Amino acid sequence: MTNVKPYPEYVDSGVEWFPALPSNWSTTKLKHIATCLPGGTPDTLDDDYWLTDGSGTPWVAIGDMSGRQIIHSTSKSLTDAALVNKSLPIGGPGTLLFAMYASVGEVTPLGISAAWNQALLGIVAGPKAETRFIYYVLQSVKDWLPALYRSNTQNNLNAAQVGNFDLPLPPLAVQQSVSTYLDRETAQIDDLIGKQERLIELLAEKRQAVTTQAVTKGLDPNAPTKPSGVPWLGSVPTHWTVMTINRLASVISKGTTPTTIGAEFTDQGVKFLKAENIQNNQVWDTPANFISTDTNRLLARSQLQVNDLLVVIAGATTGKSAVLLRAQTPSNTNQAVAFVRPRDPIMSKWIHHVLSTQRVQSLISSLSVQSAQPNLSMGDLGKIWVTVPPPVEIDLILSQTSRAIENLDSLTMMARRAVELLRERRSALISAAVTGKIDVREGVA
């Protein structure tokens, strides 16, 4: 941040999320400086209301906002009859859409003329406000929204609550200076974030290549090969065999939810692992869930052991896996996680690496039952073919590839941390500028 400093004088604002303001700024409510326009959803079963050929009026749902800085297209469009039936407003380019359900607090401008659903609130700046300034202010409000949520089961807001947001209001010329400054500074930060995210993608591709080479070809790229007999696996070194996970494991099973036996979670005790705990090829201790030792005893079938291979078999991360470490026992698990207990302990890491290849992930996706969420049966999991080199070679391959993978994972962790810090910097900069903690006017002069 260059050419920025505090304002010379501040006054109390009377608002919790920005306690002080520059003395020539004021406070206002969103509804006093902008028009707030609720959306709606026409009858989804009436074909006269919906278009899929790209014609009609674009209709924005939460999914159309995801990951976008500006909305240029939508997955669905409406006929004129639908607009009339629901009396839906149409916002022009520049209209801000604020999420009141699901991704509460997300705000994205329209780049096209469009209607929107009831989960979104359209916001059109009035003559006293700069649209870009409102856009940045609403990004800063997000951390304070939980106090306003009106539902304990789903964090929602309504149009009246959003319209009553207390906001800082500098003079219009200052709003424009703040917006111009933030446009420039956030673009630079976003560019740095994009470079780090691309680095993460490249590291993931390299990790995938290292893993695939290891479990399909071994350490010698020139080793003679033979057809494996498994179409997706291709050829393997002539001295390797292939076997299904069923033949390699003494146990393939899964857990259950404690409530099925009348038990509850506890604040401490035996770790209870869910699908969310299997992330980035590791078993994470967070989110932390526990059951009592008595409950763990009753759930004896799914008591986990050191070196068990945990595989997610239900939900968005179906197919992800990780090996359980000694420090993570005793532990138990639920029905969304299967555990594979190989007869030879060295096979846990080997099968994990095989499962993490893109080839097997694609296979798992094709095997998963797509209902409300993907589900992989334990039967199908057990039928997945795995390459099996001689034990001594497995040990050597794991030893050498583990060093390369650990290095790639370390670089990935550093890049992710960089992205996290850049996003924190971006958020702090926006908050400081729109609440007057810093005077950015010289920075855009």
Automatic annotation (TrEMBL):
<dbReference type="GO" id="GO:0003677">
    <property type="term" value="F:DNA binding"/>
</dbReference>
<comment type="similarity">
    <text>Belongs to the type-I restriction system S methylase family.</text>
</comment>
<feature type="domain" description="Type I restriction modification DNA specificity">
    <location>
        <begin position="22"/>
        <end position="194"/>
    </location>
</feature>
<dbReference type="InterPro" id="IPR052021">
    <property type="entry name" value="Type-I_RS_S_subunit"/>
</dbReference>
<dbReference type="InterPro" id="IPR000055">
    <property type="entry name" value="Restrct_endonuc_typeI_TRD"/>
</dbReference>
<protein>
    <recommendedName>
        <fullName>Type I restriction modification DNA specificity domain-containing protein</fullName>
    </recommendedName>
</protein>
<dbReference type="Pfam" id="PF01420">
    <property type="entry name" value="Methylase_S"/>
</dbReference>
<dbReference type="GO" id="GO:0009307">
    <property type="term" value="P:DNA restriction-modification system"/>
</dbReference>
<dbReference type="InterPro" id="IPR044946">
    <property type="entry name" value="Restrct_endonuc_typeI_TRD_sf"/>
</dbReference>
<feature type="domain" description="Type I restriction modification DNA specificity">
    <location>
        <begin position="238"/>
        <end position="394"/>
    </location>
</feature>
<keyword id="KW-0680">Restriction system</keyword>
<keyword id="KW-0238">DNA-binding</keyword>
